[in-house]
Specification:
Number of helices: 4
Largest sheet: 6 strands, mixed
Number of strands: 32
Strand content: 35-45%
CATH architecture of the largest domain: Sandwich
CATH class of the largest domain: Mainly Beta
Shape: globular
Number of domains: 3
CATH superfamily of the largest domain: Cupredoxins -  blue copper proteins
CATH topology of the largest domain: Immunoglobulin-like
Structural class: mainly beta
């Protein structure tokens, strides 16, 4: 029915315009006009200053990505904050477009969280804004743009606007490792493509998707950055982050195993050793690697195509030389249940059902996403909660796409994946495979409007988002 398909595409484009107008209105209503003197005063008073501005990021010799970043670098500066110690962060927006920063994984008031949907103020070009909050919980968090990008693949999470944010325990960290290495993955040079124009892909009515031509794990492409230097016998803590806009990653360090000690910054109930780490967009993993296999190795994507795009980094033992080695690993199953307790979680006070579906945009068109049959902003409010109660979200991914589902300002317990019950695994983003179900529990303990969305930038911009509110 071609006529019906054109109608659906038109509806999706209208909703894109609605969201663009919504954020433009917020920008006009909620931002103090640029004032250089005020910005300089705020920067002096703030504990940290983040400047969003254009940057030329060389990912390989002669290969420069024109993007935006934080403080002239990609990733931006690592912010190490102390649990429970109030902090102020002044953000100066020289990116050239309305922008804001989301402090991913923190328990914050809605107006400090960095999402306009929750009432956070958007920062006009040339203006600045100071965020004030008390960091909590501890662990590996991150910060990134929460501006909308729509079809512009130079903005928001498609750009270099991201960085690590580590909340350190108030009592200090004993440091049961010899070295700490922070690695964020990112994909570059994105382009919109019609999947049906390629040799393989989803059904012919699918809309446009984003494909990438370059990738980094760390600052530069595989083989073009400084190697990570280690010594035999070292215990190395790797903090890993998938900072891509829309692509999951699968990582390995051949000849070594990863002991997973935390996911999304939260200690796992059952630390477990695995050969391969799989992270969907926005997910993090803290892993310990025993350096007991001397040589020069490639730490990178298990997919040849991704490594060829640059997704990897070299690990070099002291007094070792030669070409970096890679060995293909048998793909083992990555299961959340491996890091959780086997016992079922406590029953919730209330259960809420959510169904995720795609309305395909067709060849050359943009898809639209729905939650319980509605797209943002019609999903506002998605549901309403009462402070102190425990809620279970029973989620059905009725599409063939994978979704990293993220909840702002709260953590949740993963209680069931693909029919397998579990408990104790605390996250802020959960990856749902296509045609799968998942259940997560959270306690309504942070009043205020709370954004809930797929962390794929295109899915969120195309309607996969909602807001839940407190009574």
């Amino acid at each position: 029915m071609p006529g019906a398909r054109r109608s659906e595409t038109a509806m999706a484009q209208e909703r894109m315009i609605d969201r663009r107008q919504l954020l433009a209105t917020a920008a006009a209503a909620g931002v103090v006009l640029p004032n250089l003197a005020n910005a300089q005063t705020a920067a002096k008073e703030a504990d940290h200053t983040i400047r969003i501005a254009p940057v030329s990021h060389e990912i390989a010799p002669g290969k420069v990505v024109k993007t935006t970043g934080y403080n002239g670098a990609v990733p931006g500066p690592t912010l190490r904050l102390k649990e429970g110690a109030p902090v102020s962060l002044n953000v100066v927006n020289d990116s050239g477009y309305p922008n804001l920063v989301h402090w991913h994984g923190l328990f914050l008031p809605a107006d400090q969280d960095g999402a306009t949907e929750e009432g956070s103020r958007i920062i006009a070009p040339g203006a600045s804004l100071t965020y004030n909050f008390t960091p909590n919980p501890t662990g590996t968090r991150w910060y990134h743009s929460h501006a909308m990008a729509m079809t512009d693949l130079t903005k928001s999470t498609y750009s270099g606007e991201f960085g690590f944010l580590i909340v350190e325990p108030a009592a200090g960290d004993p440091g049961r490792y010899d070295q700490e290495v922070l690695l964020a993955s990112h994909t570059w040079e994105g382009m919109w493509v019609s999947i049906q124009d390629m040799r393989k892909g989803p059904p012919a009515d699918n809309g446009l998707e984003v494909m990438y031509q370059a990738a980094t794990l760390g600052e530069r492409m595989l083989g073009h950055g400084d190697p990570i230097k280690v010594r035999q016998g070292d215990r190395v803590l790797f903090r890993l982050l998938n900072a891509n806009a829309s692509m999951p990653i699968s990582l390995a360090l051949p000849g070594h195993r990863f002991q997973v000690i935390a996911l999304d910054g939260n200690p796992v109930p059952v630390p477990t050793s695995v050969d391969i780490i799989k992270l969907d967009v926005a997910e993090r993993a803290d892993v310990i690697v025993e350096m007991d296999n001397p040589g020069v190795w490639v730490f990178g994507s298990t997919r040849n195509d991704d490594r060829n795009m640059g997704m990897g980094v070299v690990v070099e033992y002291a007094n070792q030389g030669g070409e970096a080695r890679w060995a293909n690993l048998t793909q083992n199953e990555w299961r959340y249940a491996a890091f959780a307790r086997k016992e079922a979680a406590a029953p919730p006070d209330e259960t809420i059902n959510l169904k995720f579906e795609k309305i395909a945009g067709g060849h050359g068109g943009y898809n639209r996403w729905t939650i319980n049959g509605k797209s943002w902003p019609d999903t506002n409010p998605l549901f309403t909660v009462e402070k102190g109660k425990r809620y279970r979200l029973v989620m059905d991914n009725a599409s063939g796409d994978t979704h990293p589902v993220h909840m702002h300002r709260h953590s949740f317990e993963v209680t069931k994946i693909a029919g397998q019950s579990m408990s104790g695994l605390i996250k802020d983003t959960v990856s749902m495979a296509g045609r799968s179900q998942a259940e997560i529990d959270f306690v309504a303990n942070n009043p205020g409007p709370t954004f809930f969305h797929c962390h794929h930038q295109d899915h969120m911009d195309e309607g996969f988002a909602g807001l839940f509110t407190y009574r």
